[in-house]
Amino acid sequence: MDKVNIGIWNALLRITCGLTLLAWITAKMVKRPWYDSYIVVAMLAAMKVAEGITRFCPLTAFIEKYQQQKKQNNQPPGNPT
Fold this sequence. Notes:
This is Inner membrane protein YgaP-like transmembrane domain-containing protein. By secondary structure, the chain is mainly α.
């Protein structure tokens, strides 16, 4: 597990919120299973649980990579750092 980009408290919060949302949306799906939006919310909740377990968030990784590239492009010429 070399690609960790979120902290332990952040991971625990994602797992807790994801499981809570997943339980809530599952109860909603029992009453009205024909709503497609419930499936989307369930998938997002499951994604948050997975991010918490693996401690890797793709969106955070993308933002960090973008900021690194922006920082490298803004350095003045002749400055090797």
